[in-house]
Structure formats: structure tokens, C-alpha cells
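Q: Got a minute? One more chain.
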Amino acid sequence: MPTLVELEAVIATAPSALVAFSGGVDSSLVAAAAARVLGERALAVTAVSPALATGELDGARTVAAAVGIAHRSISTDELARDGYRRNAADRCYHCKSELYDCLAVLADAEGFAATFSGANVDDLGDWRPGLRAAAEHGVRHPLVEADFRKQDVRRTAAQLQIPSAEKAAMPCLASRLPYGTEVDPATLARIDRAESALKALGYRDLRVRHLGDLGKVELGGDDLARAYRSDDACAAILEAVRAAGYTDAAIDDAPLRSGSFTGIRRIPLAVR
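A: Always. Here it is, folded:
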């Protein structure tokens, strides 16, 4: 079982570092360990673009303050990249290329010796084209180097009382579009409005999948059970999605599986 001491030993091999910081549990643990080892020689950096969900930047700031690492936000322009807008299976490669290009400029300007990501060992078995972009930019993955899997990350984050220890995964808004559907700012904004409205209803583990005029809601197991306790709860969900700009709305009968939307899945929908 990997330990915090082992993670800190990996981080100590860098004299200074930027941490690509989303505020999720993985990058939060790397940031916390970097703060403990490197102190003022560590900086957490959050990328801001139309693909970042409302509230995520504030969440990242809160976590950075809690773990004691300096934090900065930068603007990225992945939408300027044709490969990103086309939204093929390698979309994340183009997104991460934009991010790491921007971080490389910052590292060079301010003298940071390394850039760290929050990738863990479990990510190596997934379809993660962003890892290719990381390799091309010399980005290091301390959690991988210390042999941390997701369960190890959550366990250690809980021990450190990191606020995001139990935070559900929240990939960028572009992940709500089926591959081949072009990414544009208006679509991302519509998805964000719909998801923000559902969060205002008290749901936390969710996605609104963009299928043209249909907004398909996927909820984590607990949230799905809560929604199906009453017709009124389901109706409120569907009305919130329609109010965000979708003509039609549906609730998926199956619980959310993060990372499962690699195309239009032919599964039953609960349409009300």
C-alpha cells in the first residue's frame, strides 16, 4: 500500500513545481504533498475556459487555501484548436496540449523546474489521450511514480482532511458531447446552465449529456434513487434541463458511470 511518505519522496526530486490543478481529489493530493515538501516553490494552476463548469474554479481556490499551496488561474483557448472543436476521440489530447503549452510558458517565465499532473495508476488503463500530450511536454505524474491508485488517493486525501477527498469526478463540459459533435461555446454554456440548475436542486453526482435538442440527465446511484422517489422530483429535473435551453429532456435509468460517454449509448431512457 503506497504511503504519503513515498509520494512526498517523489515530489522532493523536483526543486520546484507547477501543479496542473482542477481541484479534484487527484490533483488536490498532489498539490497538498507539493505544499508540504516544496512550500513556496510550489504553485497550483487552474485552467479557465468555457469548458470549465461553474463553481469549479471557486472549489479549486477553496482546496488550495485548505492545503496551503499558492494558487493561480490562467486562461486557456482550446476552442481555437481545430482538433479540439472537431471532438474526435482524441479531443483530450488537444485540450491537454493547450494546457501544457500554457503551463510551459509560465514555468519558463517564473523558473519552475517541473510540471505535475494528478494522473494516477488507474488512469493508465483508461483511454487517456491527454497522457500523450503530457509525455510530449515532459509532465510528471507523481501519483503514478508512487504507485497510487484511486483508492489510495482517496484514502490519503481523507487522512490529510483535504476538502475534495470525496469529491465526485467532474471532467470538462466537452465530455458531455458525443464524439463527432462539434464543440462550441454556446453548447458548453447550455450544458453548464443545465448542470448548475440540477446542482441548485441538491444533486451532486451528475452529467447532462448533449444530444442535439435532447438533454439527457445521468445521476449517480444515490442521486438517482432520490430523483425516483417522487414524480415531482423527476419533473423538477426535467423542467430545469428544458429551462436551460433544451427542447427535450430525459433521465437515464442507469446510474452515472464517469467516462462512459464515448458516443451515443443505446440504452433505455426515462422520459416524462
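A: The first helix runs from residue 4 to 11.
Q: Perfect, thanks.
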